[in-house]
Design brief:
The complex is a heterodimer of chains A (about 575) and B (about 80).
Chain A: E1 2-7, E2 12-17, H1 27-38, E3 52-56, E4 70-75, E5 82-87, H2 91-97, E6 100-106, E7 115-119, E8 125-129, H3 138-149, E9 153-157, H4 160-163, E10 171-173, E11 182-184, H5 189-196, E12 198-204, H6 216-232, H7 234-243, H8 249-254, H9 276-286, E13 289-292, E14 303-307, E15 313-316, H10 320-328, H11 335-348, H12 352-364, H13 373-385, H14 388-393, H15 397-404, E16 411-412, E17 415-416, H16 426-434, H17 447-451, H18 463-477, H19 484-489, H20 493-507, H21 515-535, H22 547-550, H23 564-568
Parallel strand pairs in A: 1-6, 7-12
Antiparallel strand pairs in A: 1-2, 3-4, 3-6, 4-5, 7-8, 9-10, 9-12, 10-11, 13-14, 14-15, 16-17
Helix pairs in contact in A: 1-21, 6-20, 10-11, 10-12, 11-13, 12-15, 16-18, 18-21
Chain B: E1 2-7, E2 24-27, H1 34-40, E3 49-53, E4 56-57, E5 70-74
The chains are: A alpha+beta (about 575), B mainly beta (about 80).
Bound molecules: iron/sulfur cluster.
């Protein structure tokens, strides 16, 4: 296991062995624990003291499928706290195959300089001046990078929004077709990358020096069992390949929990026009691909390729959270408009969730009408052009709320909520309030428990426990490099057992039932919470905005019911 | 009694003539439960079917009501 440290101030590159305290970590566990240890908590997120860390999961680069996640960590310019955001595509596997545990970007290039960080097939890293790519949008950029370095290249990059250092700027990740359509979207990490002077991380996918597996035979056997469980899950066998995550539009609207019109209602008028079932039909009719492999080594295929009426590519993997933010929150029940917005966000390099919610806040404040797709597209274009209003919008929902003096801003720790209203799905409120990441859609997503009838979404009972269990489990799985779909399928006792066997074989240390996911997840969360505490966060930051407690959400007309004391007990470890 | 059933997820594929705007009408005995409905529709447990009525997830033994449309969906763990 090696670390590559790149100093953007003096352009030095050092390769180190992973120190003992970081061994057995990858992905989120590694980025968060390193940031807590190495980044001054009160530093300027856009200054030279912050570090930007790219870490494939611990198991990325092994034969285990669905492990091409790459975690990106830093202090967030959006939340002011610790941030890990992970993306699929090809980068996780590419770094893993080179035996690189993390690339740590430190310091800051002088104003006006711009670089690629290139890692070749042998794992040699170099900084390449990239002035001519300044201001370039991501699709054109990646096309040029692939033409220059070859098709078998994985790219993480920023668009103009990252160069402007906007708080909603994303880091875009190239998928198996070379489209920069997957994203480490949350927390404004694209702005940190822009501040460092780094336009792209460019890594050869053909590395052949992954870290050795301690017990290869046992590992191979364990992989078979894990894959069997992942594929047997009906969500991965049926729903994800056919509808993708967009399959959630119908259940969440049916439960009255789809935050619509800036979270004024729990059901979007016309949601049937933008649900996964309709999306799959449209894609099929037009000759797109509803069952697309977005990431290296995937056996589930939750991705899709959305095309226009002429059959021309518009965007890839139109996802549930994007459909919600760009459709539900804005009242735009039109998949073609949402797909254009998705493509535009990827191209400019902004988080579709924070951007959609920022647009919704502006609409709610009366700037434009809900449902006005042309206005929404123009607003995102303004971010790309870097106009004055574009920069306000690019500051995220809080900046927009301040600009219009509007207080209905659905964020926690500055980061927008996800596609589950906490008044109709109380457990999501617990996760949104308490996650060290700010409101988040993967950190502890309770929707499966509601749909399986294990928990009543409208009652406060059991929500804190459910959120705690899932937040711990996800912190552990986010460390492994597996995608959410595979991880969710392994949350049961059989899955946990099979995964522990696999991890034991990989590490060569027997793991007990408490070691994974519990002990690892707790270790990661503790580091994240410690960083946030040192950065100045208190329990008052683990709260939802006022209106969730006061304004009933139709159709159930419920408010958020979990008391502050209960919220504070979420992490009583 | 007749109940209107709306299908979602990949369940629609089990009913080739299914039209989303119309759903399907199913004749069930008075007092029929969610379990009865799913077995009548021949939807096996492996499909992860979930029945939602008026915004609430029903349990297998809950009874269906006359004139109240039923949504049959599939459980998903998030995304
Ligand atoms: S299931 Fe989806 S997110 Fe997971 S590896 Fe496959 S395409 Fe990527």
């Amino acid at each position: 296991m090696k670390l590559i440290r790149v100093n953007m101030s003096d352009k030095t590159i050092r390769v180190e062995d992973v120190p003992p305290e970081y061994r057995g970590l990858g992905g989120r566990g590694l980025t968060s624990i390193m940031i807590n240890a190495e980044v001054p908590p009160k530093c300027d997120p856009l200054g030279p003291e912050n570090k930007l860390i790219f870490a494939p999961g611990l198991l990325s680069g092994t034969v285990l499928p669905n492990t091409s996640r790459v975690s990106v960590g830093a202090k967030s310019p959006l939340t002011g706290g610790i941030k890990e955001s992970n993306a699929g595509g090809t980068m996780g596997a590419a770094l893993g195959r080179l035996g690189i545990a993390a690339v740590v970007v430190e310091g800051q290039a002088p104003e006006g300089e711009l670089y690629f960080l290139r890692i070749d097939q042998n794992g040699e890293a170099s900084l390449v001046p990239a002035q001519e790519y300044r201001g370039m949008r991501t699709y054109q950029l990646v096309e040029k990078i692939l033409a220059r370095y070859g098709e078998k290249t994985a790219v993480l990059c920023i668009g103009p929004a990252g160069e402007y250092k906007l708080a909603v700027a994303s880091i875009q990740s190239s998928d198996t077709d070379g489209h920069p359509c997957r994203a480490a979207g949350r927390g404004g990490l694209g702005a940190v990358m822009g501040a460092k002077g780094l336009k792209a991380l460019v890594v050869d996918q053909r590395g052949k020096s992954p870290d050795p597996v301690a017990d290869p035979e046992a590992f191979k056997e364990a992989v078979k069992e894990v894959v069997r469980i992942v594929k047997a899950d009906h969500m991965n066998a049926e729903v994800m390949p056919k509808l993708g995550t967009a399959g959630l539009v119908a259940p969440v609207n049916s439960m009255g929990a789809f935050p619509s019109y800036n979270a004024r209602r729990g059901v979007l008028e016309g949601w049937e026009n933008i649900c996964g079932e309709r999306m799959a039909e449209i894609i099929q009719e037009r000759g797109g691909n509803p069952t697309h492999m977005g990431c290296s080594q995937c056996v589930v295929h939750c991705s899709n390729v959305f095309v226009d009426e002429q059959g021309k590519y518009v965007t890839s993997s139109l996802e549930y959270e994007t459909i919600w933010a760009m459709g539900g929150m804005t009242g735009i029940a039109d998949l073609d408009a949402i797909a254009r917005l998705d493509n535009l966000c990827d191209d400019i390099g902004v988080d579709t969730m924070s951007t959609g919610v920022a647009i919704a806040v502006a609409m709610d404040a009366g700037y434009k009408e809900f449902g006005d797709a042309e206005a929404a597209i123009e607003m995102v274009e303004e971010i790309g052009r870097g106009t004055e209003f574009g920069r306000i919008l690019g500051g995220g929902p809080v900046a927009v709320g301040k600009h219009f003096n509007h207080d209905r801003v659905p964020v926690v720790k500055g980061q927008s909520i996800a596609a589950y209203d906490p008044r109709a799905m109380q457990g999501h409120g617990v996760t949104f309030a308490t996650s060290p990441m700010g409101a988040d859609h993967t950190a502890g997503n309770v929707v499966g428990m509601y749909l399986q009838g294990l928990l009543d979404p409208l009652k406060p009972e059991g929500q804190v426990e459910a959120s705690r269990f899932l937040q711990i489990a996800m912190a552990a799985f986010d460390t492994m490099g597996q995608c959410f779909m595979a991880s969710v399928a392994l949350l049961g006792p059989d899955g946990g057992e099979a995964f522990r066997r696999l991890l034991s074989a990989y590490l060569g240390t027997p793991l007990g039932p408490d070691d994974f996911p519990h002990a690892l997840g707790v270790r990661v969360l503790k580091a994240e919470r410690e960083f946030n505490r040192k950065a100045g966060f208190t329990k008052e930051d683990d709260r939802l905005p006022r209106f969730f407690y006061e304004e009933p959400l139709p159709p159930h007309n419920t408010v958020f019911l979990i008391s502050d004391e209960e919220l504070d007990s979420t992490f009583d470890f | 009694m007749k109940v209107r059933v709306n299908l979602y997820g990949t369940l629609r594929q089990r009913f080739p003539a299914y039209r989303p705007s119309e759903g399907i009408e199913v004749e069930v005995p008075e007092g029929a439960t969610v379990r009865d409905l799913l077995s009548l529709l021949d939807i096996p447990q492996s499909q992860g079917a979930v029945v939602i009525v008026e915004g609430r997830v029903l349990k297998a033994e809950d009874k269906l009501r006359r004139g109240v449309p039923v949504n049959v969906l599939q459980a998903i763990g998030g995304g």
